Amino acid sequence: MGNEKIDFSDVILKLEDINKSFPGVKALQHMQIELARGEMHAVCGENGAGKSTMMKVITGVHKADSGSIYLNGEKVDIREPNDAYGKGIAIIFQETSLFKDLTVLENMFMGHEPVTTVAGFIPNINYGAMRKKADEIFDFLGIAGQIDYDAKIDNLGVASKQMVEIAKALTYDAKVLIFDEPTAALTNKEVRALFRTIARLKEQGMSMLYISHRMEEIFEIADRVTVIRDGSYVNTAPIGDVTEQQLISWMVGREMNDMYPKAEVTIGETILQVSNLCRSGEKDGFPLDHVSFDVRRGEIFGIAGLAGAGRTEMAECLCGLRKYDSGDVTFEGRQLHAKNYREAINDGFIYVSEDRKKYGLVVAMSIENNLTMSILYRLLKNHFIDFEAEDKLVDKYMQDLRVKAPNREFVVENLSGGNQQKVLVAKALCAEPKILILDEPTRGVDVGAKSEIHRIVSSLAKTGLTIIMISSDMPELLGMCDRLMVLKGGKKTGVLDRSEFSQEKVLKLAL
Prior knowledge:
Elements: E1 11-22, E2 25-36, E3 40-44, H1 51-58, E4 66-71, E5 74-76, H2 81-86, E6 89-92, H3 104-108, E7 115-118, E8 122-125, H4 127-140, H5 158-171, E9 176-180, H6 188-203, E10 207-211, H7 215-221, E11 224-229, E12 232-238, H8 244-252, E13 270-279, E14 288-296, E15 300-304, H9 311-318, E16 326-331, E17 334-336, H10 341-347, E18 349-352, H11 356-359, H12 367-372, E19 380-381, E20 384-385, H13 387-400, H14 417-430, E21 435-439, H15 447-462, E22 466-470, H16 474-480, E23 483-488, E24 491-497, H17 503-510
Parallel strand pairs: 3-10, 3-11, 6-9, 9-10, 15-22, 15-23, 18-21, 21-22
Antiparallel strand pairs: 1-2, 1-4, 4-5, 7-8, 11-12, 13-14, 13-16, 16-17, 19-20, 23-24
Helix pairs in contact: 13-14
């Protein structure tokens, strides 16, 4: 999708010497970037590098402490988001900012509805004009008739919500569009649809900034790429002049030669046996059909499969988070059937959800509170919490997992995605699991944090901890697992030993 004919000297947006600090954190230091007219410009960096902060400065969510922003060669002052919209700058966040209880049409024109007057002085929203403009925009995007204007946002899928966000931006006649991790929650089919829309926007001269951790996306759609690290500018280059390895080394400040540091581990005896696990799936559409497997002590046991294969649902059945109809689960010689997650925890099963904000962390609380909230009863001393023991425990896991934060009281919401994921794993380890189930452990984290999490997983297995890893990242499974089970439509289609691993074999079983 990249266009070599773009005149990079025709700059529509320029940031110069931008600085922004938060309490205890220098988020941006002497930041700079230039966006050419009609360009798709990718922005890369590790979690916490300052990408989202820079975009929020551009769109008026944050006010820069110092520095200058130029739009079409003129210095502009963007004090708040409406300023940005008024100047033709809009952003599509990973998590949409739409009002879920309002309709598509109401969201598109919120705050700038076309108005007519009744009896010469009574203002009245002109829904006819709104629908006409919406028709023009949806036709321009190539999705005319695909989204009901009267549907409530809460009833739409993620991909449709993103399209509404893009359409909303075009109601402001946006000339600069910013995408912040737009594909994180999309299926492959939805990603292709989004890229077709982006290509259409680009053909019409839209200038776009694009944040993503996915290297394959950047090399597919970008014209240039800018890398930032620790809040500072590192480099900008045409996408055809750099390799993936160069980008990664710019991002992390070092060579990343081993993304999958798999330690040699002596695999022990079988400790978990699952026999003929079945559930109808009538209520949620996720059946399991006589799934059987075993897991050994110290093993990293991977579970692969396409979306809807039943990977997460099976793990939740083991942990008492979902009910199953029949089958046997035997752990360390004892037959188990956890009625709820508390029972599973007591049995030694800890589940780390793929959605850390919804099911794993209380992001408004501190690192310390998150790590110990599920084990406070273990820290009691004479009926009171032993705060000294709690502090030591938290400090140990922050150090072991290399959580980057000023202190244990730091609020989780202010951590980068990679460090939030480390806190989530640390919280699980505080509960002293015997079997740790990791569901998409590196989703939404950058390459540096991904390598760190892989190191942690490998070192945990070396201590004898048994790990079940669910992932949609094929190289991750092939690089980290000792064995790999593949599911399709709730059925086991095969189990591969490490010596048999190949992407072709896994895909054949998954398809």
